[in-house]
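sry for the spam today, last one i promise. struct tokens for design, 246 residues
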């Protein structure tokens, strides 16, 4: 299986500015993410950024960089620019690995790419996991997904879907994991679409794809996926883990 990994990395995070460059166990965070992507068997890994310091850091550890616009509203839009700049064939599989996921298992990256390999009509793929008993299905920060019996996404929401189920986990209550694979042709189409109403209401860019009739293939993750780094507390947790203190 041949696929690319693109790592979008922004300097201007609202909650933790400059986080791709923050030190974790002697490396900048972006190097940890890049190392995990390289270990996934991807044929090529590039970092997409709009910031010179991030580009310099990536070049410093031997990584490849594509400079992109600073005006993109979503990471998917940034990947679309990369696909265009590198003139990728429409069937090329591209996995979007966020630049704040230093603990992401390489196996998960390969799983997402494999979904597109086995579903040639899908333009996009992603993962989910069952809710645990201790998690709140009504928490809007936990995005939910429902899909049909063949794994094709029906809807994503910040609300508790499907409605009417008890709060304890059921076989139909899954939390979406924001790891995406795309075909390059899909990225080009996505870039031409304006944000849709459902996307704006839910603040979920994948709904733009569903509203345009795109096939999103979903699978339950084959491995545990630790949370990424959004806050200073998250950063300290990851530092403790990679320094052997957790």
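last one done:
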């Amino acid at each position: 299986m041949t696929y690319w990994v693109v790592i979008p990395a922004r300097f201007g995070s609202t909650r933790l500015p400059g986080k791709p460059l923050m030190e974790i166990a002697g490396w900048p965070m972006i190097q940890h993410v890049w190392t995990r992507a390289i270990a996934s068997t991807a044929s090529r890994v590039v970092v997409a950024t709009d910031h010179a310091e991030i580009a310099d850091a990536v070049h410093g550890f031997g990584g490849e960089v594509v400079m992109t616009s600073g005006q993109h509203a979503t990471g998917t839009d940034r990947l679309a620019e990369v696909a265009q700049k590198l003139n990728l064939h429409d069937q090329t599989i591209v996995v979007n690995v966020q630049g704040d996921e230093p603990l992401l298992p390489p196996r998960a990256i390969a799983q997402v790419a494999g979904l597109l390999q086995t579903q040639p009509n899908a333009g996009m793929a992603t993962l989910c996991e069952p809710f645990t008993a201790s998690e709140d299905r009504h928490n809007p920060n936990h995005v939910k997904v429902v899909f049909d019996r063949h794994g094709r996404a029906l809807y994503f929401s910040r609300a508790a879907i499907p409605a009417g189920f008890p709060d304890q986990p059921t076989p139909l209550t899954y939390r979406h994991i924001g790891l995406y694979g795309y075909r390059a042709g899909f990225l080009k189409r996505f870039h031409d679409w304006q944000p849709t109403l459902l996307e704006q209401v839910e603040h979920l860019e994948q709904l733009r794809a569903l509203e345009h009739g795109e096939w999103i293939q979903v699978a339950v993750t084959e491995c545990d996926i630790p949370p990424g780094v959004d806050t200073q507390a998250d950063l300290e947790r990851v530092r403790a883990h990679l320094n052997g203190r957790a």
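The chain has one domain: 4-242. ok im logging off now
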